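Hi P.,

Sorry for the delay on this. The queue was packed all week, but I finally got your sequence through. Input first:
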Amino acid sequence: MTDTIQMKIAGMTCSHCEQTVEQALSTAGATDASADFRRGQATFQWSDDKDLGSAKDAVAQAGYQPEGVQVLKGSSERARARSDGGGWNLAILGSGSAAFAAAIRARDAGARVVMIEQSTLGGTCVNVGCVPSKATVAAADLYYRAGHNPFGGTSTQAAGVDLKALVAQKGDLVSQMRREKYADLVEEYGWTVLHGRAAFADDTTLMVDGEPLSADHYLIATGASPAIPPIPGLRDVGYLTSTTALELTELPESLVVIGANAIGLEMGQLFLHLGSRVTFLEVVDRIAPFEEPEISAALTKVLTDQGAEVLASAHILQVERHGEQRRVQVEMGPKTRVIEAAQVLVATGRRPNTAHLQLDHAGIKTDGRGSVTVDEHLQTSNRRVWAAGDVTGAPQFVYVSAYQGTVAADNMLNSNSRIVDLSALPRVTFTTPQIASVGMTEQDAAREGYAPKTSLLPLSAVPRALVNQETRGLFKLVADEVTDKLLGVHILADNAGDVIYSGVLAIKFNLTVTDITTTFDPYLTMAEGFKLAAQTFGKDVSKLSCCAA
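Then the structure:
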């Protein structure tokens, strides 16, 4: 009879090493030998009446170091993971962008990695966040533009919405990207995925569905979920979140959106473009409250021009059911209003997924919102545990999560020398037009001790916007009066999310306004607005010919 054998092997660094080990094992009498340099192991069939010492000797003579042998005998992946004990270099809780970035970096370094996921592989972005929302936003934007064509001599129409078909197409895209960008990579890089609920038993051990698992290092990358405010009556009447709203198969006649920051604005305008009557409610004094006030004001006008009602400084007193409708009672200064709608969408932020992890058992500290507390290296109060992504309270962008996952893996497996730097972090809100920003606002700059100077360029001064027949928007730049250094770039325009990369580079590499004005920008692109806005510091660009420097 034969057994399935798994041998841990040190020293393999490439595919040629794999071939050498496989040949050595075959020569020693193994069959079906398969080596994996990323996992640091080989699996093969071995007759149970032969001494495994000869297989170890063969590997050693080939120039590698056998470090342990395990008889699998067809055991399950869960049993293999459990019996491997401390053989894991890294155990990752979660399977989103932070988790995958860390796993890829760790496998490239030769680490043995196990990933534990209690739900669907891929985390928020691909399943219920960026991918499905932006796909649906794009469809809604196209539909709206078809019904609001600004060009003479052409005819387009928006003939109706089949939301069920749109949701199905979105689902197909999600499935494709989850397979190609997540599931297939597990096989490509060679780590183990366990499906189950993980919690810390103590400062060195996880329990996965009641079974112990140990590793040299741990990464908490469990993400975040929609936060629901304690509004009286809200839970009783039923509400939508950014997740459940994307699964609707019938378009609501009317919608109240509670929260008008990025998610609320994107989701609310999506339904507005498809034909719902939408009311935005924001508790502070303006929508998009983290953006420059000029951007908030301009986007408010866009939304109201498109038929939405935008109510800022709106304190919600309660929500109640009235037949098929929801009634939202809102206090605005001395007045109280009742707004009726078929659906209520809650977009008031996200909370970290830490409640079930028993972090206190491992001595891992959290803040008041449940975010894992980390230092500049992403290490927690438990020196064997790191955290990355939304669970840390970092800006909730998928590219931040992936960046942090890579930083955490580098630090735990190497010298702990990388420091998180978000100083040139862009943010994009996928409304129409888009909001994109990087660096400081005017208020930030003053607070940091700079002498801020600003330029404000209406989109009507950008030739691309004139050609597009869409001039609602602006560019705002913030610079230091003393050094001319560019401090912030803020855009409301079509394709702002693409244009902002120029601003990212300018902020990262400490460019000055003069650096921007003396650099080429291609004519009749929205990116030209960046240079025109820089020129606005010293010139009236309305009095320049096309492309004049």
